[in-house]
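Sample entry copied in:
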Amino acid sequence: MDTTDSLGTVLRAIADPTRRAVLERISRSAEITVAELTEGSGVTQGAVSQHLKLLKQAGLVADRPEGRRVFYRARPEGLEPLRDWIEIYGRFWTERLDDLERLLSTQDADAASDAAKSNPEGDGR
């Protein structure tokens, strides 16, 4: 799977607010079962299982079967494609803001120079 495909998979997985809530609950636990995720969530166990399936396919959670129960844990490294993509835009905006800061500094210096030329005596007028 290339980076674009994995980014798309991660974005689709976290696009759903219920799925994000499931992922957040998993992230706050070392391990958690479907039954524990379902408790107090207002979502059926079947729906939670479907969300977990998509989160697992996206590489955001891992499971560990133990007898009849399956324990889920977060895989933070699954968010790396998203982090990498955001990092590109972070560099983009940092460079643009640096350019803006240089432009504004130049304009301030030019304005100060123009003011000094228009009032060579420097009497504050």
In short: The beta strands are 32-33, 61-66, 69-74. The chain has a mean pLDDT of 89.
